[in-house]
Amino acid sequence: MNFRILCGAAVMAVTILNGGHGFAAEQFDPALMPHDKAALVAVSDTQMGLLRRAVRFCNDLGRSRHNNNLCVVTDLDRVVRTSGDEVLKAFHWTLAPIDRYDDKRSMVGLTKYLKK
Fold it and tell me: What residue ranges do the domains of the chain occupy?
């Protein structure tokens, strides 16, 4: 238990000292975000499948929001980072973390990310 608290404090300290930007600046092109609802649904489904796979891998099945589970976050981010799919990267990194790691998110909330 003390080890978890220590690790959490270390991650929090690094995040705060880094200006709240996480551990690395992600390289993506926001212009690649989907322009219509059908494309948004398709990339959301792809990202959701990757999220659910990370949730199963990390055995974090008891909740829908996984942004506080370091295993889920790092596994999903790694898979997206190495996927080679630029649209997926733009979608994933444009989402707010509360939506990015939520496997029960709705399309109503995602429509705010559609490019005008």
Answer: 28-113
